[in-house]
């Protein structure tokens, strides 16, 4: 059941959606990266999920889980080959071979499980309809243990809905195809190496009933070149096993034909049918954007900008809550002021590209979005050293530094928190500097 990379991305996004029903992620950076990388809501949700998956290790865990699924499936295929060989040996275990016993041994379990799967396919499309899938999932879970997440399978079911039956059908019928192929090959080998005599036995059915059953079962195989024993051969085989090579070969060919058509071909055709539909479904699969969680994300990933609301009247005549339009095509060397009064005068040098103040959430989001789209070469962050370096402040500096090739801190005012700032910046591998650092960088170019 091959999975395309785009399907894995959808699976990851759906897993994160289910996790966020009871938990939450720090997704500010992921949202900004998604907005800069994609234009559509679906694309941004997938991009956001990829960033969160990389940050939390969930993407790597999902890839490991999928690889383990393939490994376990390969193990089950090997088991299927042994099961098929066992079926063939069981069918030919009697001497002479009772034809009805051979048919039940070769086709009985196959037909019973086929009926169960078929009704499950029609009426329980999200259920396995076979022991193969629960065993497959159970073995995968036991192998991955802690390197997995409990929402992976629920997310897959939620993502695919009733269409999951095509994937389940492919796996189940692929497994049975391998069993029956192995049994068919072993039958051919055994018939080629050993003498087998055949006989049919019954208490309730008459000879005419047996003749009719054998001829009807052989009609479709006869289209593929498998001969049907004549009436005389059928009647005589009901009393004693016939030793003639032509009779033995005739019964062997009939048995192979019946098994090939009603066993192997049925499963092979169903495997192809389910596999083609599963592949086509993967090609057209999309996120269900009508889900409440995705609608909530839409307000953050696809914002509808309007006139900025004035939060503090002191800002009315100075700095808007957006990036300075003058520097949107700047040279990539920027000055930013964090939590500083808007009447602060930074420099008379026209070469200073002042990107703006970060004094509220809207300004913060605007500047981070701008730097996400156009990362800075040099970024100088002005900070009032009167203000204590709390965790929120340091986290914002870290976010800004991640969007610049080089970042420096300008501590203004020589305030009472200056020494604390120096210690905090040292923990971030930064040191205080002055405005000249930014200007020298520009003059050097």
UniProtKB/TrEMBL annotation:
Membrane-spanning ranges: 69-93, 99-124, 174-196, 251-279
Pfam families named in the record: DUF2868 (PF11067)
Keyword annotations from UniProtKB, A to Z: Membrane, Transmembrane, Transmembrane helix
InterPro entries linked to this entry: DUF2868
Record carries keyword Plastid: no
Protein name as annotated: DUF2868 domain-containing protein
The species this protein was found in: Candidatus Schmidhempelia bombi str. Bimp
């Amino acid at each position: 059941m091959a999975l395309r990379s785009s399907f894995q991305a959808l699976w990851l996004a759906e897993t994160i959606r289910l996790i966020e029903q009871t938990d939450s992620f720090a997704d500010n950076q992921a949202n900004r990266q998604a907005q800069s990388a994609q234009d559509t809501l679906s694309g941004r949700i997938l991009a956001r999920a990829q960033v969160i998956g990389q940050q939390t290790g969930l993407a790597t865990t999902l890839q490991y889980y999928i690889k383990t699924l393939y490994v376990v499936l390969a193990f089950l295929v090997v088991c299927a080959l042994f099961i098929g060989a066992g079926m063939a040996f069981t069918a030919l275990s009697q001497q002479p071979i009772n034809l009805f016993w051979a048919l039940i041994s070769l086709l009985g379990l196959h037909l019973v499980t086929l009926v169960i799967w078929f009704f499950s396919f029609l009426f329980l499309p999200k259920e396995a309809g076979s022991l193969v899938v629960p065993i497959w999932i159970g073995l995968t879970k036991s192998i991955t243990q802690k390197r997995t997440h409990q929402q992976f399978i629920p997310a897959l079911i939620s993502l695919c809905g009733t269409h999951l039956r095509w994937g389940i059908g492919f796996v189940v019928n692929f497994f049975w195809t391998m069993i029956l192929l192995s049994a068919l090959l072993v039958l051919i080998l055994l018939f080629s190496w050993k003498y087998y005599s055949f006989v049919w036995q019954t208490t309730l059915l008459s000879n005419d009933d047996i003749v009719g059953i054998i001829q009807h079962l052989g009609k479709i195989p006869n289209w593929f070149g498998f001969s049907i024993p004549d009436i005389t051969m059928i009647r005589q085989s009901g009393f004693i096993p016939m030793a003639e090579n032509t009779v033995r070969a005739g019964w062997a060919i009939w048995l192979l034909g019946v098994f090939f058509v009603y066993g192997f071909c049925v499963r092979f055709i169903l495997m192809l049918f389910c596999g083609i539909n599963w592949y086509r479904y993967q090609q057209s699969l999309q996120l269900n954007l009508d889900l409440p969680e995705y609608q909530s994300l839409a307000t953050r990933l696809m914002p509808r900008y309007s006139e900025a609301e004035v939060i503090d009247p002191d800002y009315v005549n100075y700095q808007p809550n957006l990036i300075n339009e003058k520097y949107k095509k700047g040279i990539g060397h920027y000055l930013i002021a964090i939590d500083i009064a808007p009447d602060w005068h930074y420099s008379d040098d026209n070469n200073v590209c002042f990107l703006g103040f970060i004094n509220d959430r809207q300004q913060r989001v605007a500047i981070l979005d701008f730097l996400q789209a156009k990362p800075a070469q040099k970024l100088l962050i002005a900070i009032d050293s009167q203000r204590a370096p709390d965790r929120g402040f340091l986290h914002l500096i870290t976010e800004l530094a991640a969007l610049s090739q080089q970042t420096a801190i300008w501590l203004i005012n020589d305030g009472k928190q200056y020494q604390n700032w120096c210690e905090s910046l040292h923990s971030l591998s930064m040191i205080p500097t002055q405005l000249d650092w930014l200007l020298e960088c520009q003059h050097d170019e």
